Amino acid sequence: MYSMKVDFLIVGQGLAGSLLAHFLETQGASIFVIDPDGSGSASRRAAGLINPVTGRYFVKSWRVDELIPFARETYRTLEQQLGGSFFHERCILRALGSAKEENDWLARAGDPGYLAYMGDHTKSEHFQTLLYPTLAYGQTLQSAQLNVAIFLDFFQKQLIRKNELSKNNFNYNDLKINRAAVVYQDIEARGVIFCEGFGAIHNPFFNYLPFRGDKGEALIVKIPGADFEQIVKQNNTFIAPLGNDLYWVGATYEWHFENDTPTEKARLELLERLDTVLKMPYEVIEHWAAIRPTVKDRRPFLGQHPQFQQLWIFNGLGTKGASLAPFWAHHLSNVILEDAILDPEVDITRFNHTKQ
Questions:
Q1: Pfam families under this entry (predicted)?
Q2: pTM higher than 0.70 for the full model?
Q3: What is the pLDDT of residues 109-159, one digit of tens each?
Q4: Which of 96, 208, 275, 327 is the most exposed place for a label (fewest CB within 10 A)?
C-alpha cells in the first residue's frame, strides 16, 4: 500500500504549477506538488507585467482579448481565496522619444481594435522632476502587475496547510509508469504534470522539446520619494513599483549563457540604462538573474507525452507568464479532466518526438 493516493502529481510550483493546481482542485481533482525551495526560479524573479501592447510597432499581444480578462478574474479570485494582495492594475507609461513614435502611437490608438488598450498620450512635462525628458508618453490600458513572489508565497502556504507540498527535488528514476497509474516513491497517482520551467531540459521524458531559454537579469532598487503608481517604460527599461519605495528595474536578455548567476556586465548595463531614465538618486538593493523558459515560436508547451499517456507538460510561458498562465492552466485542466480538445497552437504535437 502507498502512503498517499492522489489524482495528479505536479512537479514545479512556479506560476504554471500553482495555477494548474488551483484549477485542477477547483474542478474536483486531488493534487500533490513536488518542488524544492524554488527561491531562484524564473517565476519568482519576474516582474509579473501584463502588457497588452508590445514591440516597436505597438502590436497587441497574442490572444490578448481572451487572456487579460481571464487573468484579471483569476488573480482577483485567488486574492480572495488566499487572503493576500498581489495583483495590481497599473497603466504602463511608454516613452515616445520621436515625432515618428508619437505619430505611430496615435495612429495605432485610433484603430478600433486597440481602443481598449491604448489611451491618450501625455506630454513629458508631468514627469520632469523624476525622469529625463522625452517627447511624450503613451498610456497602455488594461495593463497590470502581478507580484509573483508574493502570490507564490501565499499559494505555497495554502499547499503546506493542506499537506499538498513536498519541498524536494523530483527524482525521475523513482517514477514508475504502469498501465493505469504512476507511482512515485510512496505516492500513487493517475498522472504527473511537469511544470518545471527551464529545468525541463533535464527531464528525460520531455527534453526533446525545443526549449530555447534566455537569461534575464534585473535590479531591485530603492527610490525614496518617487511614488510611482504606474509602470514606466523608457530606453527599453521597465521601472515597476513593488511598494515601500522599491522598484523592479529590467530586464536584460541573453540567449547564450553558462549559468543563472548574476553578472557584472548585466548589472552595469542595467545601471547605465536606468541612469539615462531616472533623475532621482537610488540605491541598488538586489541583483537577480534567472533563465526564462522561452520557446522559438513563442507559444507555450501543453500536452501529453507521445508514449506515456499518464505524463503531461505545462511549460514554455516565456516572458509573458503572468498573462498566459491563468488561461492556459484552465485550458489544460479542462483537457485533462473534461476531455476538451487541446488547442493546436499550444499542443506539443506540433514538434516531432525525436528521442525518448
A1: DAO
A2: yes
A3: 999 999 999 987 777 666 777 899 899 899 999 999 999 999 999 999 999
A4: 275
